[in-house]
Queue: 4 jobs
Job 1
Amino acid sequence: MHTFTGDSYTRGLQHGIALAQAITRRIDESLPSRLDSAARGHIAQPWIDATEQLDIQLLQEMAGIAEGSGSSLVDVVLLNAFEAFDLAAMVEKGGCTAIAVTDQRGHTVLAQNWDANHQLGSSLSVHLHRDPVGTDVAVLASPGGLGWVGMNEHGLGLVNNDLLGGPTASTAPSQVIRRAVLKNTDATAAAAAMRAIAHPALRSYLLADRSGVIEGVEVLPYQEPATMEIPAAGIAHANHAISTPALYIEDRAAQERVYPSSAHRAERATLLLEQTRGNSDQNTRARRILGDHDGLPLSICRHNSPLESTCTAASVIFDCTALRAEFSLGLACTPGTSHTVDFTSHEPRST
């Protein structure tokens, strides 16, 4: 776990210094080598401009990452703006299963298996941002990245899933959007912010907070985001669209080619949510679902398979009620290193 403290630029600088070699390696391995610096700058500029308009502090954080790692701001922005490139040609690939549950007492847990290929999964770590004048947040992140999923000190959690299809808009990158949304204090405000933001590509988000509110949003480029209905037993989402607007532009052929297990993972997670509905321990319930092997290797806990290029690289359980974020690196069934951020004590713990 890495802890970064200070204003946006200072935290970015600390990030860049701590992970300089990994950031340089990721730039060399994941950004298209055919593009020279001028071409990269041309691609990055609209994303830089949109980030400055949405949240200049996050642009300052990326500037700090660039300075600390000896990289250019353009390259750091492009690490965060993966939407600027063709998914099929990307070296780093993801794909995940997410759930959100709450009980009659309002105990709310947001959880996800974060799946990736080895190129992306092997570089993951937990970044804890301590902002003396802002909101503290813990995120699962890659070197040079602002964060894939996370939870803040108010108990607001955010997870999300890749969806395929539709055009790409040169807006703020989705990693910027995720961190900007995590500056809110509750899921209702976060969802409202999500709906007010222009999004670069098709994607689903689940948000939850300590009061028991769960929000599901599927965002689309050039269109209003769509709201997902949250069943009483909880909601499960994988890598295919649910809402009508998202279904309309989804490339189902590409989705089934890249994520053939998506439908099974979502159906299985939904079934397990219903079967475990009476479980009084929401954390145990989430762990049971994330570690499920039905359909192995293309199960909720995904193992290596020639049919898909990704497998479970990390799992997160955000106990929004208890203000506790748990990050486990590796397979959900046999996690390796685990990190827990307890926002009530402000003492991170690694095991």
Note: The longest helix spans residues 37-54.
Job 2
Amino acid sequence: MKGKEAILVLETGHSFIGESFGYEGEVVGEIVFNTGMVGYPQTLTDPSYANQIIVFSYPLIGNYGVDTERLESSKIHCSGVVAREFNDYKFHWNSKKSLREFLIENKIVGIHKVDTRAIVREIRKFGTMKAIISTKEKDVFVLAKKLLKYDFNYLDLVRRVTTTVPYEVNPEGDKKLALLDFGVKMGILRELLKYNFRIKVFPAWTSFEDIKSYNPDGIVLSNGPGDPSNVPYVQETIRRIMALEKPVLGICLGIQLIALSLGAKTYKLKFGHRGANHPVYHVDSGRTYITSQNHSYAIDERTLPKGFEVNYYNLNDHTVEGIKHNFLPLVAVQFHPEASPGPWDTKFIFEEYYRLFD
């Protein structure tokens, strides 16, 4: 089925004319690229992509439809989708709907038949930027002018994706975990449940007193979208959580918030890390792991307070990928050990966390 003509305009002024393959309309977001070859249903439903337009660098998406039982949340969180070629079939035994149906159902605008390699080069050259996709307005100058009205620098995206009420998972489990939800993926919950944890998921703004009243054996600080400095209301809570000296697991945004809360600084990467092929070096073992990642910000190693050490580095740009503490029971990584999608090389991170309870 041929889609309506669509246009993508970048903040640099460059434009790309293609064809719509999702919901018809107009959307503005921060444009980023993902280098994964598979796993688009999980990528689209990852809450960490809130407010972003995803460019898939792999040239074909949609060819195995959408398995709604393997999603990372209940809906699509990104603002828009860009692809070289979209396939409307669903060649998978467990596919419940096509990608087109999934995008339309979630009111997500998509554009394909554009030069995604050129778009990725543009992002790599100039950095992450604002972009707009439209199936309505075709005037590049009008669309470029609309971009000027938007400023994403101070958005608290966590409030968009966190749960609004606490809920419990596996209430008959053993050790009690309090999970602060900054945009948690289902994959993280699935991995934790393998260790029979009893998990209570709390909204991001939950007070320390409410968390402490649950009397958890451990605390998890989840992944999530955006700039960690835009959620200052969690910093005092995290400082007091760390003072309890109970086992803490921080993943992606979680590790950044731990660092900020204890006095370190974070900074924005030029174009972020997004995909399932990022090499990470483990200092303690000397081994290299291929990891799944999705973040725009990194910890400034020079600002880490006394007692912290970097135990994982990214081999592409030497950014911080994991930290540990001299005596606090902490497991904190920038990458996604649950993958979803991606390699399972670092699922042992959950085992390391579990051993902290011994």
Note: The radius of gyration is 20 Å.
Job 3
Amino acid sequence: MEASCLELALEGERLCKAGDFKGGTAFFEAAVQVGTEDLKTLSAIYSQLGNAYFYLKEYGKALEYHRHDLTLARTIGDRIGEGKASGNLGNTLKVLGRFDEATVCCQRHLDISQEQGDKVGEARALYNIGNVFHAKGKQQLWGCTQDPGDLPPVVRDTLQRATSFYEMNLCLVKELGDRAAQGRAFGNLGNTHYLLGNFVEAIKFHRQVIYISLGQY
């Protein structure tokens, strides 16, 4: 039974890596049905099921499995796993527009990563929190008719919080030497400053994205 569950999970992982998320979820679901006493393996299956359903845009199922993963990580005392599951929950809640809940989950990921000395997890959590505030700010902007830069205080505050987290993320990924992550941070800083009406700053950050892609940064 043990090998069978693992075999099914490995086939699900292979299919997802090949881009067949529908097929992958079928194998992961089968692995869950077969079951395993190895809770670490089961936690990994829940996590991958949540991610696969996220890519399939089946966010309700993604939430369900990321919650299972979070519960299991807590049960076995896996703090890093708890942080990752919290981050995955946060990203899913963000897409659903549940920004306050998303922030709580992403902040938990950040706290645990800092507690565990996990710099990569910390950088990811900072980036994800920035994304939550960026998405929230964009949603708040939908009802606004003001000129760019002439924003209601609540919208400006939300977007400025996004820039703060992106800047913290940028500092950390520079320290880690992760150029791809630096490019993402510069791009999102550019997008957020554009929404704030800071066009000179936006251009500056978007130029950095180009420099990184050309290997000149």
Note: The mean pLDDT is 94.
Job 4
Amino acid sequence: MAHRLRLFPLNTVLFPGAVLNLHVFEPRYKQMIAECLEQREGFGVCLIRDGDEAGDPAVMPYEVGTTAEIGEVTSLEGGRYYISTVGRKRFRIDRVVGREPYLSVDVSYIADQPDDVAVARSLVGEIRDVFREYLRLLIEFSGMHADIELPSDPIDASFLIGDALQVADSMKQRLLELSSTEQRLTVELGFLRRLLPQLRSLLERKREAPQSQPAAPASGGAFRAKQEQYFGKHFSTN
């Protein structure tokens, strides 16, 4: 069954359960959010495949995205908004209905295929300590704060890890599109195992650097720059 959604293409991959904060300032998206608020509806978020985030009516999104439920809203001058949203359901675009004043699409909601629950839970147990160590090292290196507890539910855990990983948008999109929880967790475990030694090496060099040198930026820019050699341009945390 097709469902119609207003679409907000962004340079961001939104996972179910993840928080996305937005400053809405373009006229077409101000209108879209106003309509969503009036009708008490959410909207769809898709990573941009081709085109620009702002001012590009011909922007092309990836086919798989996530619905965003609007939570806190702050109305600003000129009809602008600050909104806080939470990712809910994944969808696949079936067809583009219109592009004016914003993208409108018909979608089908998608869910993970049934997996062996015991295997999926075992993977969560295996990945938990690796993910905890990754967060610890990332916090130490970048100065970012993160208070994240991995859920016991395999699907929720796989989406949380996908959101937290500091990898390229294209890699996050790949994780979002996977239809198997077991496969998503397996890919994420592989990412983490490759990222840990790289992060440890960067941390060691940071500790050995003379104190007179400027500290690494809080955004973790050096770490991201290093990772771009492997994964391309990095997703920025919300």
Note: The two ends are 32 Å apart (CA to CA).
